[in-house]
Amino acid sequence: MTVFISEDKILEIKNAADIVDVISENVLLKKTGKNYIGLCPFHSEKTPSFTVSPQKQIFYCFGCAAGGNVFSFIMKRDGISFPEAVRMLSRQYGIPIPLQKMSDAQNRRQSEREGLLGVNRHAMEFYHQMLLNPASGEQAAAYLEKRGVQQETIKTFKIGYAPEGWNNLANFFLKKKMPLDTIEKAGLIVERGNKNGFYDRFRNRIIFPIFNLNVDIIGFGGRVMNDDMPKYMNSPETLIYNKSGSLYGLHLAKQTCREKEIAYVAEGYFDLLALHQNGINNSVATLGTSLTSEHVQIIKGLVGKDGNVVLVFDSDDAGIKAALRSIGIFLNAGMNARVMVLPSGYDPDSYLLEFGKASFLKVAEKAQSIMSFLMNALIEKHGLSVEGKIRVVSEMRETLLSIEDRVARSLYIKDLAERLEIEETAVLEKVRDASLRTHGRDERNKFSNHKFSGDDSKNGFPNTVKQRPFYSKWEKLELQIIEMMVQFPTILSEIEERRILGLFEDKRLKSIGQLILSHKDRLDASLADLINLIDEKDQKSIVAAMAIAESKWDYAACLTILARFESLRNKDKKALIKKIKEAEENNDYELLAKLLSEKQKMAVLTEKKKMTLLK
Asked: Per the domain annotation, does 121 fall within a domain?
């Protein structure tokens, strides 16, 4: 029987799990007024923009637009689903969850996720059998043997092979009578340009299934066996796969990571396989991306706040850049990260194959702190000439500036000055210069992705959807109207009576408004509960941003905005008619067609409002 967790039980768990206590396990929070602030755990930043409201039991980051309630935080931190987050907190707070039957709507939502996981399981078996079958997998098997991949490893990691050809997998699923649109949603096939059928995404590649902590197959990685490009290809982002929050080998590494309180982080599939083959099971690998805050939080959850991370980077320019990108993330997470430097020309795969586990671990014991590695690498790169020292300090100053702990920053400055044999005050001066240049910029950029749209910033709110800024005057007003609905529920009856949502153009905002109206009787006390009912991440962030803002509303101001919104709609209609007439007079048929299309859309909106008024 498919089960779900009742709303009453979710509410009980949410009330027991204070959001400040939960977030404080990962983020150092400082009280400022009614709220708490800290450095966001989901992106690297120097100035705290992560805000937690104990009164409203929500969080919001003005830097990356992450927001939601206590469940949202657990989901994003650990890369798990909503039910998993609820169950985790229920165990932590000792609240049992009885099983209940799911409604039809809940079944539909759950079935899509399960459908994608099922498709991936079938695909994994197909690829795995293609490799094991001598008729189809001979070349791939020979390639893996040459790379030192053992048969036991192939079985453990369910490694496979996507044969040459454009529709091997598609035909496999057709024979199983599985709908190809679901296979496409899983990212395994791609629709042809002429809309006439599909073709396989992975062709003539070694296939690496990607598992999550629950041992579900969430995606795939593919590698060519020659010099074709791209060398590596991963599944696209789907409902169940997010590469910024996924790590290869995590399902097999989790237990050993917890036991040893240390994790090795490599950069490729074969590196990870070599580590596990040599008994270094507390190892994971990134999936073609740099380390992200989500990755670090997942690792931190496994090794603990006092655990260690060993980054196996190359000692070339790419390795230095990777270290530079990672420093802020690890420092903000309060994690002890070290960099293991292998001899030039070696990666974990080739080093372990040639020298073995014992030699590898000896090198690992000498792993440098991430800051020491960076200083040494830059000195080696630029040398200790006058010009070289200048370049080292120049490349180090932003990193030093990113260290929030003043004592730690002072010690690192002293260390760098001693290594370069220059005055400590000279390095300090460079860092201060960088601070003066970036301080104002950081303050301006704090809300750079979320510019307030209203005429008055107090009554505005951020654009949490970076891909589509809200430029038009009515879209700004739509955002303001939703904000007043969240923060000033007294106006809800007026909005409902005047059918204001019927004039909305933005479907996401309209759906949020409808959700608020459907729960208006308990909105005052349940903003965090309202977030539970929203499926879309962007919509969660919008509501969280509005709820966390300290705006002041009154009835008269709300009525003024509603009147302005209705008035602008009428003015837009008159202006559009004028433009249509001018286009006709100028015989501009292309513009005329576009304007008539806009008029049709506006007519549909007006007709919808009329219909609602007649109900």
From this structure: yes
Position 405 in a domain: yes
Q: Which range has the worst mean pLDDT, 79-93, 477-491, 532-546?
A: 532-546
Amino acid, res. 201: R
Domain that holds residue 566: 457-614
The values of phi and psi at residue 161, to 5°, are: -145, 130
- What span, in angstroms and rounded, lies between the C-alpha atoms of 547 and 57? 10
Measured CA to CA, the distance from residue 290 to residue 243 in angstroms comes to: 10
Based on the domain organization, do 488 and 610 belong to the same domain? yes
Distance from C-alpha of 558 to C-alpha of 564, rounded to nearest angstrom? 10
Q: Cα–Cα distance between 459 and 444 in angstroms, integer?
A: 19
- Regarding whether 16 and 87 lie in a shared domain, the answer is yes
pLDDT (tens digit per residue) in 296-318: 888 887 887 778 999 987 656 67
C-alpha to C-alpha distance for 94 and 16, rounded to whole angstroms: 10
Residues 60 and 165 in one domain: no
Contact between residue 280 and residue 356 where contact means Cβ atoms under 8 Å apart: no
Distance, in Å, from the CA atom of 422 to the CA atom of 394, rounded to the nearest integer, reads 14
CA distance 532 to 520: 15
Cα 99-83-156 angle, rounded to 5 deg: 105
Which of 241, 258, 281 terminates a domain? The answer is 241
- Between CA 611 and CA 454 the distance in angstroms is 30
Which whole number is the average pLDDT over 345-365? Answer: 91
Indicate the pLDDT class of residue 235, thresholds 50, 70 and 90. very high
Q: What is the CATH number of the domain that holds 21?
A: 3.90.580.10
Q: Does residue 187 surpass a pLDDT of 90? A: yes
Segment of 42-51, 278-287, 509-518 carrying the highest mean pLDDT: 278-287
How far apart are alpha carbons 519 and 532 in whole angstroms? 12
For residues 386 and 396, give the distance between their C-alpha atoms in angstroms, rounded to a whole number. Answer: 16
Pick the closest to residue 326 from 360, 365, 299 (CA basis). 299
For 440, counting Cβ atoms within 10 Å of its Cβ (0-12 exposed, 13-18 middle, 19+ buried), the class is: exposed
Query: Domain count of the chain?
Result: 5
Residue 385 has pLDDT above 90, yes or no: yes
- What is the Cα–Cα distance from 9 to 317, expressed in whole angstroms? 52
What's the Cα-to-Cα distance from 606 to each of 57, 492, 502, 562, 602, rounded to whole Å? 39, 21, 8, 16, 6
Residue 570 confidence (pLDDT) above 90? no
Q: Among 445, 465, 493, which residue terminates a domain?
A: 445
| pLDDT value of position 522 | 57
- CATH code (residue 188): 3.90.980.10
